[in-house]
Amino acid sequence: MACPFHQSANLNPAVLPLDWLLGTWQSDEPGEGSFPSISPFRYTESLHFSHVGQPIINFMFNAFHAESKKPLHRECGFIRLQPGTNKVAFIIAQNSGLVEIEEGELTGQQLTLHSTALARTSFAKEPHVQQISRHIQLRPDGRLEQTVSMALEGQHLTQHLHITYRRTE
Fold first, then answer.
1. Cβ contacts of 97 within 8 Å, gap of 6 or more
2. CB–CB of 45/165 below 8 Å?
């Protein structure tokens, strides 16, 4: 079956359970960001999920400050499913110098993930991220919702980001 978001390759059957993510998503209202060590902020974000026929989904997330429009955080990577299970892994590189592996479960049109490995450049900004969790779900109204929590050195896992998106293509 050809994916409507990538004309040159058929969707690999291994990632068919993730086909609901494919395409481009844009926040139609600014998301909320907060953490105990920073001032609350609002941001917009675009997500792009694609494939090239391999048993992975490619992704790119680009966030911008809602008022100034300055680029904020960027993530790119891959999503893999363990064959025959609902176990899923995100392999992520961030523009901050953080690289992470998040693993969790796919339940219907909902992903729940927790970091299993974090690595960073030797000159990454402190305090360092120690743990990340992510929840992504397709809501009944057709919007995609994402909540990201994180823990820094000496802090507990705390909600950091919350945003919803509408599919634009």
1. 120, 121, 123, 124, 125
2. yes
Instruction: Please determine, for residue 8, whether its predicted confidence score (pLDDT) is greater than 80.
Output: no
What is the Cα–Cα distance from 77 to 103, expressed in whole angstroms?
13
Which of 90, 88, 86, 110 is CA-nearest to residue 99?
90
Helix (H/G/I), strand (E/B), else coil: 35: strand
Q: 75: how many CB neighbours lie within 10 A of its CB?
A: 19
Q: How many CA atoms does the CB half-sphere of 100 hold within 13 Å?
A: 21
The pair of three-digit structure tokens given for residue 83, joined into one six-digit string = 């064959």
Q: How far is CA 37 from CA 100, 153, 156, in A?
A: 21, 11, 12
For the entire predicted model, the pTM comes to 0.91
| pLDDT tens digits for range 84-109 | 999 999 999 999 999 999 999 999 99
Note the pLDDT tens digit of each residue in 27-38. Answer: 989 999 998 888
